[in-house]
Amino acid sequence: MTSFEDFLGKAPETKTGWTLSTLGFTPYFSNQLDIEDLETLTPYRIFEIQRSIVIGMGENGSRPLRTPHKVPTSNYGVGDWVMADHTDQIVKRLTPKSVLKRRAAGSDVSEQIMATNVDVLFIVSSCNDDFNLARLERFLALAKDAEVIPVILLTKIDLCEDAEQFVDQAKELMGDLEVLGLNAKDPDVVSQLIPWCGKGQTVAMVGSSGVGKTTLLNALAGRDDATKSIREGDSKGRHTTTFRSLHQTVHGAWLVDTPGIRALRLHEKSTGIEQVFDDIVDLAKQCKFNDCKHVSEPKCAVQAAIKKGNLDPLRLERWRKLQTEDNRNSQTIAVSRRRAREFGKMIKSATKEADKLKGRDRDD
After folding, report:
1. Structure confidence by residue, pLDDT tens digits, 225-245
2. Which residues bind Zn(2+) (predicted)?
3. Which of 172, 270, 354, 358 could bond to 266 as cystine, CB 3.0-4.6 Å?
């Protein structure tokens, strides 16, 4: 009988794989398994997803895994822990401890898994035209929704005359927020990120294309930087990531690189918005009226803070925009779910009617 100790991989590491503990397998995941799982199934951490392909990494190395019948690869995220049988088919997905997810692009109401089992989110922007407070706030809300630690990395400080102004603006977005200004090509950049890249930790990295995410990834992974120089005219690098994948860093952490994101749509009922804008939420509680719109109502604490110079009116507008989007998301998803239920009932009713007709034909 296999013990949990043996299952966690105490034997020396193989050349093609890692021990489960090195891959980030903790008691949180082992507690979800029973004895039969330990004896008949093999654990893998999902390292890469490309449309119809799922690559898992285990103690015996990497291998493509088959998803169950009619289960799309979009149901899984890079960083997931899954259990596969002897045919390499996924039998069970272990409940992740954190999930970074967003609304799909366009008018689609479905949610898209960006990464799972993440401890820290590196939000990468640059000290040039890419710097955008509204986008940073969205990424911060994403991190808070997933209950992971956000860290803002501002790159290209070597190409900026006054990088501190960007750092200061970012720090004001949320209390106790870590913001680092750095040069992604600096040999010492890895040492700056060590506090969040310890052994067994999982870090996800998000940001627009061309802000230096791949350069940072290569530095953390100990690889040569393949990123080309910045394009003239739009301040962006030439390299872009086209799919999500997991990489080991030189200090034993695991890093999820994601395709460049410019427009982030938050998922239904984002609780992270209130956490990012907790200053406005606290002020709103002091308003005279519970339904205060913070426009021209008497004794509005929010407007009073703006007049005193304690609150930037642009920040209030960004909060309003996110709140409006969040409410619209909930309404849109509610309508979509109601339509799905109605459609399901219609199909069920039609099936019953068809079965009745078949029964009558047999009787005749």
Report:
1. 444 443 444 444 444 445 678
2. 287, 292, 294, 300
3. 270
Tokens at residue 233, please?
């005219």
Residue 243 phi/psi, 5-degree rounding, is -150, 165
What pTM value is reported for the model?
A: 0.78
Between 269 and 291, the higher pLDDT residue: 291
Assign domain 4-93 one CATH number from 2.30.30.140, 3.40.50.720, 3.30.70.1230, 3.40.50.300: 2.30.30.140
Segment 253-277, tens digit of pLDDT: 999 877 655 555 565 566 788 899 9
- Provide CB contacts within 8 A for 301, sequence distance 6+: 283, 284, 285, 286, 287
Residue 213 is assigned to a ligand binding site: yes
Is 212 among the annotated ligand-binding positions? yes
Q: Is 209 annotated as a binding residue?
A: yes
225 annotated as a binding-site residue: no
Return the closest-CA partner of residue 230 out of 168, 163, 181, 184. 184
155 is in an annotated binding site: yes
